[in-house]
Amino acid sequence: MTQSSVGKLHSELFLQQQLQEVITLLEKQQLEKSLVQRDVATTDLIETVLYKQQQSRLQNKFAQLHPADIAAILESLPLDQRQIAWEAIKTDHEGQVLLEVSDAVRQTLISGMEAEELANVASQLNTDEIADIAADIPKRAMLKILRSLNGKERSDLNAILAYSENQIGSLMDFGMITIRSDLNLKAVIVYIRKLGKLPSHTDKLFVVDQNNVVQGVLPLQRLLTHRPALQVADVMVTDFVRFQGYQETAEVARAFERYDLISAPIVDENGKLQGRLCIDSILDFVREKSDEDLLSQAGVDEEEDLFSSVWKSARNRWGWLLVNVVTAFASTRIIGVFEDVILHLVALASLMPIIAAMGGNTGNQTSMLIIRSLALGQITPTNVSRMIKKELTLAIINGTFIGLIMGLLSLLLYQDVALSGVMASAMFINLLVAVVVGLVIPLVRHKFGYDPAVGTSVILTAITDSMGFFIFLALAKVFLIK
User: Does domain 178-278 have CATH number 3.40.190.10?
Assistant: First the structure.
């Protein structure tokens, strides 16, 4: 990779330029293929030579790019072009690219690979990296990969795979440096120099005893700034952050943020060192979780590939769309029940959407706050009642304020005091209902172990729309129709 490319790795413009160049190469390749196939005099040898030349152009392009950039390009290509591009990526890059692409895209790439090819790709990866993609690898290929590993590698892989995907043990790696407390700092420095290089994200060394129990950590800063004659025991930090493999990743991610950690040891219940957790794994988790929550709120499966088949995408979205059909039908039935009320006072038809929209917005504000607070671990059994009381008080204040404003605007528009009162009352009640629903849905889902973000927006909007219509039209029937 050239020096200029390294400087541009984080440039969106650079990535877009590379994507466009790859697309241009793919389109040119398709055009040349079409022209050759039209020529009846063309031999198989000519077609093969032309194909190799075309692939060579793509290989040269990908050779200049970082695996993360290649992954972003593959995710932006339709399935047919993606497969052609994937075939042009050199074998020594395939493993890292598979790590970088989304789960959905990884599945499309792996589906076209033979077991032997997947085993070769896995040989480029560390044990923890193999664990990252293990869920997408077919059983036959996984058995080949396991047979290719030595005893320690197989043991390390099994240790990672023993944890569920929401536990930090599934994210640990084994690239840590361990030392004994009775060494002096000079000996540690000599040892590191003999290693030749440090594992990535190494900001501290782990101090262990003869039973591999972690006694402390030695930050590199202390190693370099203290006298070489001092012993590790005199310099190491004994009050350090450590985690156990079964802990929830979301909980640990908050700890990494709180204590500004770069790496931390993972230990078992006896304090024995199992592996380490690094900031890059935490950042990947946070990004994936953020993307997942964003899609889940709209009822879209996070596993959906942008260019997956229409049938697969349709099945992915049918669930919540059917929920929307039911709720929309319920809303229309509510309007139908009060059809005579609307016919008597046509102004109701123009005011109804305002009630529903304000309820939806208010409920979404509340639910997003609750979802975020649950994700950060800020809501506990001891403070949940106070939080609910605060939100309900806020709903009363906002409902009164917004209700008065809407009542005054209705009065100015229609010069009808009764209609203005109904508008203000309906707005107040619906905002209160919206806040209650915005509280209940994520809290109940969280209580029963479900993701509070999944479908919350869809359900909330449906309820606030239906209740908004019902409240407004029911009040109108009671107070406006004689």
Answer: no
